[in-house]
Amino acid sequence: MSRTEVCPTSQHIELPCVYRVSWSHPFAWLRAGLTDFGRNWPLSLTLGMVFSLFGYAIVSHFLYKSHLAMALTAGFLLIAPFLAIGFYGISCKLEDRKAAGEDKVFSCIRNNAASIGLFGLLLAFILSGWERLSAILVALMLRGDVVSLGPFSFNVLWVAEHWQFVAAYIGFGALLAALVFAISVVSLPMMMDRKVDVVTAVITSLTVVRQNPAVMLLWAALIVILAAIGIATLFVGMVIIFPLLGHASWHAYRDLVQAG
Question: Which has the least CB within 10 A, 49, 110, 133, 205?
Answer without folding.
Answer: 110
